Backbone:
């Protein structure tokens, strides 16, 4: 169950959100804790300063009245003000310093040990401490109380540190609720989106299983999101190509079997007739032997073509590098078909506008041109016309073979270069396939310009 993509995707999604939430919460809590600490200190500082100023003025007035120098004041005695101030501020107020700062009366303040802080310095201090009889740590700010310029003690305003922590706990509680709600929403979204993503993946998986057993007529998802749509489209194209490759393979095997069986049948029949003495006339024996030789040569050419095509398909074909006189090569290819042209009354012409020398494999270039001419002679009826042209333009050399045959329709032109495909009905159907693969191996290409009823032009283009 956990190995399923439908389960793992939402879990990974939720794990990522949870991790991000924990990191965000940790940072938020730390920042809020520092903020709450600073805010508490700031508040305690304001309260401590105000109360210390109040007590400084009250003590100064009290000493002035005792010496007959002060003026009467309406301020409440500090022993009554302490409780009111604690209720108003929500903090505890302590005194550290001289035990009785007011002459003739108690201060009413809770005293801290004399050495709690260095109050004699007369400076404001912030610190943590545990008051006598308490078990909690307090965060406190002490502000000096002065008579004139002399510090006689300090007012300490303190609040339990747990109150600051309680604010953080409240924040954690709210963040936890928000995070839980967010995980529920995110979980629902994760399940929804994972189903949208996984459904086409499962369909592609089922299609792959079908293709693996040879069923190429598969349905692929057509409404997949994003990259999955591109993958589905390419998978469909792959299935179609595999189906076409299997069809071509079956056709290839059938064609090879047929092409091999035809000459073998002829050879076997003539040999059997010769062995059994059926053919006694010397002229007929010579004809039979000539037929056997011709069919054996046909078999040799067929096997050679198949081997060449196999080498090209597996990229185990070696290309030689040499200087090739294209004018001389085209002359040689032209002469090889001159006799057939005269015998069939074909208007056979050669035109060499340039006679360049290129660096290539001369034997393979001659093989390509020969295959193009052979194909042209098969397609051209007796009394037709065939042209062989050579020219050089823009750093390339082109050899063009034109014929006045029936032409090739556009839908048949692409498959014409496949093995065992022949529009003329003669030959093995390997010549053009080998020519195309050889041209690619030599860094060139073969272009076809044909129209039904107007003949065809095959152009071999090679780099200089």
Residues:
């Amino acid at each position: 169950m956990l190995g399923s993509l439908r389960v793992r995707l939402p879990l990974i999604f939720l794990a990522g959100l949870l991790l991000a939430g924990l990191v965000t919460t940790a940072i938020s809590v730390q920042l809020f804790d520092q903020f709450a600490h600073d805010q508490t200190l700031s508040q305690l500082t304001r309260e401590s300063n105000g109360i210390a100023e109040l007590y400084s003025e009250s003590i100064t007035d009290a000493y002035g009245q005792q010496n007959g120098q002060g003026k009467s004041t309406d301020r409440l005695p500090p022993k009554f003000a302490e409780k009111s101030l604690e209720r108003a501020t929500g903090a505890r107020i302590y005194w550290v310093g001289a035990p009785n700062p007011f002459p003739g009366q108690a201060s009413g303040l809770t005293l801290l040990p004399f050495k709690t802080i260095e109050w004699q310095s007369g400076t404001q201090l912030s610190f943590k401490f545990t008051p006598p009889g308490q078990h909690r740590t307090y965060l406190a700010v002490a502000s000096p109380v002065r008579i004139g310029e002399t510090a006689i003690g300090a007012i300490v305003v303190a609040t339990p540190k747990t109150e600051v922590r309680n604010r953080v706990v409240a924040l954690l509680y709210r963040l936890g609720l928000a995070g839980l709600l967010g995980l529920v929403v995110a979980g629902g979204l994760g399940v929804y989106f994972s189903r949208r993503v996984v459904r086409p993946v499962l369909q592609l998986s089922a299609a792959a299983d079908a293709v693996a057993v040879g069923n190429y007529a598969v349905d692929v998802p057509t409404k997949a999101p994003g990259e999955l749509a591109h993958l589905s489209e390419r998978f469909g194209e792959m299935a179609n190509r595999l189906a076409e490759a299997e069809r071509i393979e079956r056709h290839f095997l059938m064609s090879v079997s047929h092409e091999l069986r035809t000459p073998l049948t002829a050879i076997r029949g003539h040999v059997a007739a010769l062995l059994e003495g059926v053919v006694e006339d010397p002229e007929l024996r010579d004809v039979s032997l000539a037929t056997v030789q011709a069919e054996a040569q046909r078999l040799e050419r067929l096997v050679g073509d198949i081997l060449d095509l196999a080498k090209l398909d597996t990229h185990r074909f070696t290309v030689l590098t040499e200087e090739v006189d294209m004018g001389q090569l085209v002359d040689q290819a032209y002469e090889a078909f001159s006799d057939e042209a005269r015998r069939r009354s074909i208007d056979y012409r050669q035109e060499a506008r340039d006679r360049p020398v290129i660096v290539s494999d001369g034997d393979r270039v001659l093989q390509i041109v020969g295959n193009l001419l052979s194909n042209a002679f098969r397609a051209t009826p007796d009394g037709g016309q065939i042209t062989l042209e050579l020219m050089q333009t823009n750093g390339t050399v082109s050899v063009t073979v034109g014929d006045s045959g029936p032409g090739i329709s556009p839908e048949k032109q692409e498959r014409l270069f496949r093995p065992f495909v022949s529009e003329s009905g003669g030959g093995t159907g390997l010549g053009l396939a080998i020519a195309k693969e050889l041209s690619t191996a030599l860094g060139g290409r073969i272009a076809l310009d044909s129209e039904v009823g107007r003949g065809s032009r095959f152009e071999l283009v090679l780099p200089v």
Remarks:
- DSSP finds ten helices and twelve strands in the chain.
- The chain has three domains: 5-166, 227-313, 322-463.
- The first strand starts at residue 92 and ends at 97.
- Confidence is low (pLDDT under 50) at residues 72-76.
